[in-house]
Amino acid sequence: MAKKPRKQQGGTPATVALTAAGTDFTVHAYEHDPASPSYGEEAAEALGVSPERVFKTLVADVDGELTVAVVPVAGQLDLKALATAVGGKRATMADPAAAERTTGYVRGGISPLGQRKRLRTVIDASASAHPTICVSAGRRGLEVELSPSDLATLTGAALAPIGRV
Predict the structure, then answer these.
(1) Beta bridge partners of 28
(2) Pick from 135, 162, 149, 118: nearest CA to 26
(3) What is the longest distance spanned by two Cα atoms in the chain?
(4) Residues in a beta bridge with 26
(5) Cα separation of 13 and 25, whole Å?
(6) How confident is the model at residue 8 (pLDDT cuts 50, 70, 90)?
(7) In angstroms, rounded to a whole number, what is the distance separating the alpha carbons of residues 83 and 89?
(8) What is the DSSP letter of 112?
(9) N or C: which end of the chain has fewer CB within 10 A?
(10) Contact call for residues 140 and 52 (beta carbons, < 8 A)
């Protein structure tokens, strides 16, 4: 009889959620530099991964509802496209304190996975061009690599062209 893999002890809410779901993923840790101007670009460089494969998690306010946008660090979030993707009229970036309070994560470490309150999520369609992508694992200096389809399934996300270069 085969041994069952051990459940991960501790970790972040994101890695705990991935483990509980039985999803294949790899954790990548790096030394975070507090002086770095961009968390996502710092992660891509530290991990030696193309910035097109490292995705940042942003929280926006779409018509009064907090919504998660997952876009490549190589580009920016198109707020109008995000609003359109969720059937809204207007999107603005969420207040950082509200984003932290609602997700349970700190800015620069917000993960689309394991959030305190599950928010509507949209992943930029470019993610599907890669076998795996990296997203925050729930703290600065920690990324998780997984397939875009697994990320979409676990977050209930839609894929839509919400990023721009």
Answers:
(1) 143
(2) 135
(3) 56
(4) 145
(5) 14
(6) very low
(7) 6
(8) S
(9) N
(10) no
E strand or H helix at 149, and its extent? helix 148-155
8 Å CB contact between 59 and 99: yes
Whole-model pTM? 0.91
One DSSP character per residue, 56-111 reads EEEEEEETTEEEEEEEETTSEE-HHHHHHHTT-S-EEEPPHHHHHHHHSS-TT---
Cα distances from 110 to residues 5, 120, 138, in angstroms, run 28, 14, 5
CA torsion through residues 123, 129, 132, 136, sign: negative
Question: Could you tell me if 122 and 59 are in contact, meaning their C-beta atoms sit under 8 angstroms apart?
Answer: no
pLDDT digits (tens, 9 = 90+) for 59-113: 999 999 999 999 999 999 999 999 999 999 999 999 999 999 999 999 989 999 9
Residue 126: half-sphere exposure toward Cβ, Cα within 13 Å: 22
H/E segment holding residue 25: none
